[in-house]
Amino acid sequence: MVLLGLKFVFARVRRTRKQTSAMEVIVIVDPVSTGARMAEVASSRGFRVVSLWSKECTPQIRGALAGIRDGYEAVEEQASIAATVEAIQDQLRRTSPSSATVLSACIPGNETGVKLADLISLHLGLLPHGSGNATFAGGDRRNKHVQQKALEKSGLRAVREVCGSKWQDVKDFLGDLGLPMVVKPVQSGGTDGVKLCQSLEEAEEHFSHLNATKRRVDSPDTAILCQEFLAGQEYAVDHVSRNGVHKTVMTWVYEKKALNGSTFVYLAARPLETKECPPEMISYTRAVLDALQVRNG
């Protein structure tokens, strides 16, 4: 899915760029895991590649996931978006003082780099990658609470939830959620920090645990969500969007179970035939993309 989105961006850059003799530069934010392959694809298509490391991509993430190989220019995120862009441009001037360059696109290579990639794209007037996790009118799209509020505002079905940073701020509002309930960070990756709690006592205990520990994906937002538990089959619906037109490219069904002391352990992700996919699931997904103002990516 990452590489498919990358091909879309490269094609888009080629079609929309002004004719110029300058070397085109692709900035890839946090090129780890599958994203590490993106630099090789970009280079093979004639782009100069700069890897940008965000503050959210901690040393633990970089060490745990296979990263970009040596040989590509690297820049660290700075105190502001403007300073980060200047650091990228300084790197380009330093390594190629006599060559003209133009920043053509800024693409996330991992979940941790999504927000930074979009903010840089917006700062430079580039086409936002729009992976569904950028900053938009309602706030940070990576924030699960912001996501649900956007769905409610658009009249779409949303999960009932209570959000807060302190247990005393949420405890009096949990009655409508029922038991069991899901307690999790507003921002995390996969099932990191997610727990299905069978009692209010267990919910309070996990709430306190989340407040006292860090997640794999570092985030300045430390709020915690208590959500109703949605029983049933879980699906993933992959889309590619261009100018607000959404195309379904793959659907999956997750196989999970309680294992090794964890409530949610992924055993497999099974691809679905088109006839196996509930049609309302695709239409709902596209409505969610519109609610979150995802237009490209």
Features of this protein?
9 helices, four-stranded parallel sheet, single chain, disordered N terminus, 297 residues, alpha/beta
Notes on the protein architecture:
It comes from Durusdinium trenchii. Keywords: ATP-binding, Ligase, Nucleotide-binding. The strands form 4 sheets. Strands 3-2-1-4 form a 4-stranded parallel sheet, with helices on both faces. The chain has a 4-stranded antiparallel sheet with strand order 7-10-8-9. It has a 3-stranded antiparallel sheet with strand order 11-12-13. It has helices spanning 2-16, 36-44, 59-64, 81-95, 114-124, 144-153, 167-170, 200-212, 279-291, and strands spanning 23-29, 48-53, 73-76, 101-108, 135-136, 139-140, 161-164, 181-185, 195-197, 224-228, 235-242, 245-259, 262-271. Strand 1 (23-29), helix 2 and strand 2 form a beta-alpha-beta unit. By secondary structure, it is of the alpha/beta class. Helix 1 packs parallel to helix 2 and helix 4 (81-95) packs across helix 5 (114-124). It starts with a helix and ends in a 6-residue tail after the last helix. It contains 9 helices and 13 strands. Mean pLDDT is 83; it is low at 1-6.
